[in-house]
Amino acid sequence: MEDDGMNMGLTMGMEAPLFLATWVVMMVAMMFPTAAPMVLLFNRVHSQRRERGRAFVPTWVFVAGYLVVWSAFGVVAYAGALLGEEAAGRWMWLMDNAARLGGAVLIAAGLYQLSPLKDMCLTKCRMPLTFIMTSWREGYGGALRMGLEHGKYCLGCCWLLFVILFPLGIMNVAAMALVTVLIFMEKAWRFGTQARFAASAVLIGLGALVLANPDLLPTVL
Fold this sequence. Notes:
The chain has helices at residues 4-8, 16-51, 59-90, 92-96, 98-112, 116-126, 128-135, 139-163, 165-168, 173-188, 192-212, 216-219.
């Protein structure tokens, strides 16, 4: 059972355009609950500027910058998945140890939960008003840069939580739901820090179990 995920292929057999379209839709569905406060605040500020007769920028410009960051990450993820599939075809030991490699990814994600970079990016994402006050830029170009910057912080906060979807199954609805809930708890819940530490322990523990018993990975969710 160790190679079930690899037999399906990390890209799920999708060509780049379909993979990227699927990736963006998945990202929007998973990130929208936590990105919404930032987007709504940006929209409110510019709506007030428009009411006062001042220059304003449509909210879609900010959102476009945010989507560019995650789309770029999708390109990197697809390239990495293709390299993984090619490597598995060349070296049988990768195929034989696919589940263990997935366990290692889970452990890495758990450790990243405790990292200073994760903490810094999460702090930025949790405080939309502070971000608006400290990162405000005028004009269309400024709004786009703000979207890119906010997307960068969200990516820094959550990228490995998306990477673990590859060993768990990129189309695993249960895994996507759990990751979505975790991201929401980390960013929006008052006990977000505790949720982050608890998730770290779970990911590290699950990864260790998979390393010891690879058959757990295909059936854990």
